[in-house]
Amino acid sequence: MRDEIIAPVKPRDACGVCGGFATGQDMAFLTCFALYALQHRGQESAGIAAGTGGGKKMWVKRGMGLVSEVFPDSAELKKIKCNLAIGHVRYSYGSEGRSPENTQPLRLRYRHGELATAHNGHLLNSRSLRLELEEGGAIFQTDTDSELLAHLVARQGSINLEEALAAVVPRLKGAYAFVVTDGRKVIGMRDGYGFRPLSLGKLDGGYFLSSETCAFDTIGAEFVRDVLPGEMVVLDEQGVRSLRVTGAEQESLCIFEYIYFARPDSNLQGKNVHLVRRELGRRLAREHPVKADIVSGVPDSSIAAASGFAEEARLPYEMSLVKNRYIGRTFIKPTQQMREEGVDLKLNAVQKIVEGKRVVLVDDSIVRGTTSLKLIRIMRRAGAKEVHLRISSPPVSGSCHYGIDIPNPVDLIANKHDLEEIRKMTCADSLGYLSMAETVAAVGLPSGNLCQACFTGDYPLRPEE
Amino acid sequence: MRDEIIAPVKPRDACGVCGGFATGQDMAFLTCFALYALQHRGQESAGIAAGTGGGKKMWVKRGMGLVSEVFPDSAELKKIKCNLAIGHVRYSYGSEGRSPENTQPLRLRYRHGELATAHNGHLLNSRSLRLELEEGGAIFQTDTDSELLAHLVARQGSINLEEALAAVVPRLKGAYAFVVTDGRKVIGMRDGYGFRPLSLGKLDGGYFLSSETCAFDTIGAEFVRDVLPGEMVVLDEQGVRSLRVTGAEQESLCIFEYIYFARPDSNLQGKNVHLVRRELGRRLAREHPVKADIVSGVPDSSIAAASGFAEEARLPYEMSLVKNRYIGRTFIKPTQQMREEGVDLKLNAVQKIVEGKRVVLVDDSIVRGTTSLKLIRIMRRAGAKEVHLRISSPPVSGSCHYGIDIPNPVDLIANKHDLEEIRKMTCADSLGYLSMAETVAAVGLPSGNLCQACFTGDYPLRPEE
Amino acid sequence: MRDEIIAPVKPRDACGVCGGFATGQDMAFLTCFALYALQHRGQESAGIAAGTGGGKKMWVKRGMGLVSEVFPDSAELKKIKCNLAIGHVRYSYGSEGRSPENTQPLRLRYRHGELATAHNGHLLNSRSLRLELEEGGAIFQTDTDSELLAHLVARQGSINLEEALAAVVPRLKGAYAFVVTDGRKVIGMRDGYGFRPLSLGKLDGGYFLSSETCAFDTIGAEFVRDVLPGEMVVLDEQGVRSLRVTGAEQESLCIFEYIYFARPDSNLQGKNVHLVRRELGRRLAREHPVKADIVSGVPDSSIAAASGFAEEARLPYEMSLVKNRYIGRTFIKPTQQMREEGVDLKLNAVQKIVEGKRVVLVDDSIVRGTTSLKLIRIMRRAGAKEVHLRISSPPVSGSCHYGIDIPNPVDLIANKHDLEEIRKMTCADSLGYLSMAETVAAVGLPSGNLCQACFTGDYPLRPEE
Amino acid sequence: MRDEIIAPVKPRDACGVCGGFATGQDMAFLTCFALYALQHRGQESAGIAAGTGGGKKMWVKRGMGLVSEVFPDSAELKKIKCNLAIGHVRYSYGSEGRSPENTQPLRLRYRHGELATAHNGHLLNSRSLRLELEEGGAIFQTDTDSELLAHLVARQGSINLEEALAAVVPRLKGAYAFVVTDGRKVIGMRDGYGFRPLSLGKLDGGYFLSSETCAFDTIGAEFVRDVLPGEMVVLDEQGVRSLRVTGAEQESLCIFEYIYFARPDSNLQGKNVHLVRRELGRRLAREHPVKADIVSGVPDSSIAAASGFAEEARLPYEMSLVKNRYIGRTFIKPTQQMREEGVDLKLNAVQKIVEGKRVVLVDDSIVRGTTSLKLIRIMRRAGAKEVHLRISSPPVSGSCHYGIDIPNPVDLIANKHDLEEIRKMTCADSLGYLSMAETVAAVGLPSGNLCQACFTGDYPLRPEE
Questions:
Q1: Which residues pair with A234 in a beta bridge?
Q2: Are C206 and C235 in contact (CB under 8 A)?
Q3: Contact residues, C window 313-342, toward D, CB-based 8 Å cutoff
Q4: Measured between beta carbons, which residues in chain A are less than 8 angstroms from residue D108?
Q5: Assigned fold of A276-442
Q6: How far is residue A16 CA from its own chain's centroid?
Q7: How confident is the model at residue C14 (pLDDT cuts 50, 70, 90)?
Q8: Nearest-CB residue to C349 (from D265, D337, D338)
Q9: For residue D187, pLDDT beyond 50
Q10: On the CB side of B337, how many CA atoms lie within 13 Å of its CA?
Q11: Which terminal CB of chain D, N or C, has fewer other CB atoms within 10 Å?
Q12: Is A350 on the interface with B (CB under 8 A)?
């Protein structure tokens, strides 16, 4: 949803990473394909670094824009002779500015040759690590954790990237899924809590890492397994091997990946995202039933939950909202009057479906509340008799320290208002959020395995003071 | 679906038109909003002509690309003082080249001032009319029927645009929905058969015409009624008035508007497009039942039909295909091996849903057959046990003479192959097309009111020899 | 001088035309080369039309910008199989808007096939011809005289372009050099007064026409002769032939072509432009001698005149003004203070040359006077003791009706002020304009053969009332 | 000469730097003006860093292209509140790649805040310094000496930039003119040999540094003096102060600055570039006299030398070559036949001047010899009876280690061929190079003060082995 670049209304994932090593494959080309599959995780910049596997100078291209804008010509990528590559798509996150300098993979030279790094996540001790490095004379040209990691690696004596990372990684505190290469091997890592996802796939002639499994389908790879919390996975011409270089805590995968971020055809910890979403809808129907005529979801992310709701409630599922897919980056603002009347360029209600009906409208989350109000206005303008808002997750009341771009807590409607106030502010006839317990149950994993901090305020790992 | 510009796999509508007259409204701005709503009808070029209503020099901007590319800055449009405007989006069609010259609205000067014209459709006697005009010394700078119409109007003596059009329209043979302005009034017309849609809406201070009703919602207008076949509608400061200037035949609205072209939230002849599509699916389930586990539709156009099928068949509807919304214009081609394995950038199957299942896959039409084969390969790769292809319309076997871009008949799979051959070529386990009778019944209008020529070969109006 | 597009300070030629017919040559490619040579005559748009010579559909490309922007890839042009081509570069002129529609060559279809037209000049009776054509039902899509000519040709019955033009040309009143093709032959024409230049060159396998002879050198053609006033020259596979289709008056070639417009390496009526300019300088030195230390010219156009002045005055010629060649289209305005101090991005004085010197500054003309003031400020700031302004042409006091873009007479400094006033306004220590008689004598042609209307007010042909 | 980016035929200066500190001035805006004046020193990228003077976060913009392309909107620059700014234009040089990463000024964070650096020149010990830094764990993201300097500064303990630089500079070996800022002050430095120029000017409210004095005129600054070899100049709110932080050798300013690189209106070591060039021409005439009719220079760089030659030889100076100023970046190659005939898009000879004449053609240098051959062909095609080539400097036979981009010695014609061979290869009737002694004498400084290494092979400072 590209216009959200301009006006983000949903929490946003900060990045997607991928990369692999395979002999006899066009790795830069495959990595580009994988980035297309991960595009929903970041639409602000894209980049690829590729190497022969022999440690020579790497090929790097990165830029602002969609994958298709940074790599307009696929033929070019097939010409690059390479056995390894890593890729990255990103949103800017928090303190990281939106400048071209911050695009990734970051490529740099250090004493043992070249290094290219890409990451998803957010380090909690980056400030103190930076200060320490700066004391030692380091200079920083970007705001990225990738540059920080590169500095740490370069300060280790070892020419062996595994050894250098093994020495560095225990110093990192926070959420991260890194993919790093020195032009000889590709190394992936997940933090000890496993906040951010990273999976391993098998290619002809090698292996591939990706933030989400959907990229494996796109490049013809087979899913092998998720990288474990605290695990380091090394891909080179000998295949794949695993190292444990940092203490592993109880896995705390971000539950919002299931609720909203990940692509429906991805599996996380063995659970299919689409099926989880439908189960969220079913449980929502049981927890917050309502007399209604039809059930509708907000396209595209809430349609699965809405169809689960409909199934459970034995109500017809109807596509009462139609999305205009051509709006793009440009933002043409309606007049005040049009806005109040519920006119919207991006979404429109199907009058013949909605007219005179009691509608259950399912959305995956409420952040500021303005979008919900707009949607309900659209429904009422199209003639809906009643609109019952159902949210397939609990109220978002806290920020994320692990790599998700959630608005400042003061802007979160659930932070300042109770249920009835939110109902009134969104003009809904009734409002129901799925409880934390039911949300976790829908995922089907033990509660302790899922980070729920933005809902509960219970942060597995505290940021630095 | 922009990459279809490069490789069209579906029949394509040639154009969308709109325009209106309203005092006290930012008409150029509203027309731009309406074009966003009509963008699915043409993504190759866009344009707007606007005037004060006093007949002075008009403002015109047109160019290649999406509405958002041609009009990147909405603020600019609010600055144009105008009480009337017309707009146009288009694909190139048949003989009309893809050159910038052919963008519309076409603006020109004639003896009584300026004229701007925009149209959707295809004139059957354009060649003979052109020859006749050329004999009289006319010169043509574009391939558009809009220019032809302008020539005919200019050759009439009358300063009154209604009178001039009244004299000209009876000479036109073919399918058309025109929107024309001389800077004083906006005039809309539909051909006597009503092949192409055009509807009238009410704005504060005036009226608005649009190819589809969905544009009314976007600009805050109220639907009034469809323009009738053979009717001319004049919008000016006195409001709206209707003239009949050509003989009206039995209405023959293009049935493909219901099956594929029109936006789901539009109503044509009082029938909602989304609801018709669901009914097509229901009838398809009755006509071609099959033992299966789940039903899925090809996103986005066939989801309504698939959910109707599921409902009728009492099978679970599942979103087993996920669409990548970020592919854009660029075309990155997979390798031969990847292609054979069913790897696709644009669509992916959800393995956890499909695995081991007997799947009914619903699509709205088969043109060349290559897309169906690709989809079924994707399903099988994801583990589907059986894939039963169901098409919510009859086999397309003929071309269209009324403004739809259907591939050459020799490229239509149904033109050269029988049902069993097509089943084999698409690798489906079974194949069923909805019959013509059931398709018409799903729309809910008398068969005589719908043009079905591309299915039946029964053309209401023959092209010139 | 591209920034003059934004702020024209000199009279500007409206256009350059060229074109030819030669078998076995890449005519579109050669025409592009010729347009590069004519680029100084128009930098706002460029275009080429090319045909096989058999009358088939022509290839046309035109657009806003420099030749290098409209034709960025020369390889493309070599692929066009063509024996004939015409080309055009332009400024917008007077009533012709600056819109993309007005780019040339204009290509259009008429009863006998296609026609492409390009012109330099200005028709005086275009308004009445347009009205007459509009009465007959013609429509106009551009403001160009090229479109007008095409209409007139199309209304003639003859399939033979020569015949059609022969019938049409006598109706044209004004200044013009046309190059026209119907895809079978290329025809060039000059008006009966020969206001605008057009020359004929010989290529291997054919002939070529160009506004200026410098284009012949660029494409390897040999100069043959100037096209005569009132002459029509037809190029086709039989070679070249000449027709007289309109009355020829006494030749009145625009004298400003010698003074400023034409390229120094061009010859007009057998006179080399550079040598004429030097002679203008010599005569200026004789007519307005002054005690001084050095002579300098305003780059680039006045350097020839200045060196002639220096030679005659036996004073050293010095390049005291340096031009920045990288300013381009962008216009970065200095602050008020900088402006007053004589700071300028585009021109700078060489202090070591100018300091303490009495400088003769030679310029080719004064239009508004603001540039002269700026130049003299720059000289004084660099330490010049005295600055004597010498102009190598008479005071410009009237507008041009024959295709030159001279500012409105009310903006011409010489129209409202006498010599002493102009001297004061430009802060010159002394000021001298070359007299009309000496200007004509420097060209070396009889006075009656040169249009001097903008200096004398003596217009050979009056515009319509 | 922008197309030389694609096909460099002349030695090229690597960069231009500038920057200053002045209260109450729009420093970013003035720096942009100064960059326009220095554009001839580098046309590949441009950039500006600006700060308030209080050490806060700096504003930086840099990009590929001309100054006018990187800073298209001057209004933007006036909005930046800043008392200090530095600027840079560049060609890529030697090992520095042509990638966007290498644009300058480089901005980075270190322990004491931010640093922005820009330089002209070439460090000879960069490799060993890099290795040493890498040993200490440093990472490098660019190939620039600017990044190297920043690393060295960051490793010094001092918060005081002067102190840090004072400690660092003695370690640098090679040619450099640096401009550095920490957002509090602007510091300029020249290496101990003074290979590259840097001058100091006075602004209202402060001071300004620039590679060439021509930039002072453009921004309304007054020339104060050249920065001395080995001198460090500090500009801050207290004005300007000078430090000597490294040993000063005998000044060895690049003599090619006078011959070709610098702008004619610049003064280096008190000598005006234009006047030096004229003197080069005079001495060339004395050293290599020839019987001839006219003298011409290759525009634009050799016109001064040619006019000096003409003056001394008492021959008429004629502009026999006309340069097309509109060719730009695009490269449209003539056909083989056209090339052999001496057809050229960029330069044309004036036939009426050249025909039947014995021409002395003056150029500033010969590198590969191909350009000379082309020019002489053009002259002969225009009818020149004889062409005598005179070069206003000695034969270039060695590469430059101090920041000038001279082709590999194996490509230098004078490296492999003697005078007579070169004459034959360029088809000249006679050939004369100005001797080293006369070249130095024309500059008017002691020979020991000028680096002449590319002519003599006598390198003041040897590169690392």
A1: A187, A241
A2: yes
A3: 316-317, 319, 322, 324-335, 337-338, 341
A4: 139-141
A5: Rossmann fold (3.40.50)
A6: 7
A7: confident
A8: D265
A9: yes
A10: 8
A11: C
A12: yes
**pLDDT digit string, tens, across residues A293-304:** 999 999 988 999
Domain C272-445 has CATH 3.40.190.10: no
Give pLDDT tens digits for B385-399: 999 999 999 999 998
User: Can you give the C-alpha Rg of chain C in angstroms?
Assistant: 23
Q: Cβ of C131 and B141 within 8 Å?
A: no
**Distance from C-alpha of B114 to C-alpha of B185, rounded to nearest angstrom:** 12
With bands split at pLDDT 50, 70 and 90, how would you rate the model's confidence at C247?
A: confident
Q: How far, rounded to the nearest angstrom, does the alpha carbon of residue A130 sit from its chain's CA centroid? A: 26
Q: Would residue A451 show up in a list of annotated catalytic residues for this protein?
A: no
Q: What pTM value is reported for the model?
A: 0.89
pLDDT of C315-356, one tens digit each? 999 999 999 888 765 555 677 777 666 677 888 999 999 999
Domain boundaries, chain D: 2-249, 272-444
- Residues in chain D within 8 Å Cβ distance of C311: 316
Whether B contacts D, i.e. 3 or more CB pairs less than 8 A apart, is no
Contact A134 D111 (CB under 8 A): yes
For residue A34, pLDDT beyond 80: yes
Q: What is the Cα–Cα distance from C355 to D265, expressed in whole angstroms?
A: 12
Beta-strand ranges (E) seen in C263-317 are 267-268, 271-272, 294-297
Q: Which chains touch C (3 or more CB pairs under 8 A)?
A: B, D
**D-contacting residues in A 242-261 (Cβ below 8 Å):** none
CA distance D150 to D168: 10
CB contact under 8 A, D350 and C40: no
Q: In this model, does residue D337 exceed pLDDT 80?
A: no
Provide the token pair at A344: 């919207």
pLDDT of residue B1: 24
Residue D291 pLDDT = 97
Chain C contact set for B136 (CB, 8 A)? 137
Q: Which two tokens stand for residue B395?
A: 């086999």
- CATH code reported for the domain at B271-444: 3.40.50.2020
Reference D365, options D401, D338, D404; nearest CA is D404
User: Is C106–B134 a contact, with Cβ atoms under 8 angstroms apart?
Assistant: no
Chains with 3 or more CB pairs under 8 A to chain D: A, C
- The verdict on a CB contact (< 8 Å) between D115 and A151 is no
Res A305 pLDDT > 60: yes
Class (C level, CATH) for D2-249: alpha beta
Q: What was the ipTM of the complex prediction?
A: 0.88
Q: Which of A301-305, B94-98, B113-117, C404-408 has the lowest mean pLDDT?
A: B94-98
β pairing state of B239-244 and B231-236: antiparallel
CB contact under 8 A, A111 and D135: yes
Predicted confidence (pLDDT) at residue A389 exceeds the cutoff of 50: yes
Architecture in CATH of D272-444: 3-Layer(aba) Sandwich (3.40)
Identity of the amino acid at A345: L
- Asked if D108 and A154 come within 8 Å (Cβ–Cβ), the reply is no
Residue pair A12/A40 in contact by the 8 Å Cβ criterion:
no
| pLDDT tier at C301, thresholds 50, 70, 90 | confident
Any B CB within 8 A of C95 CB: no
Smallest CA-to-CA distance from B368 within B105, B2, B7, B31 is with: B7
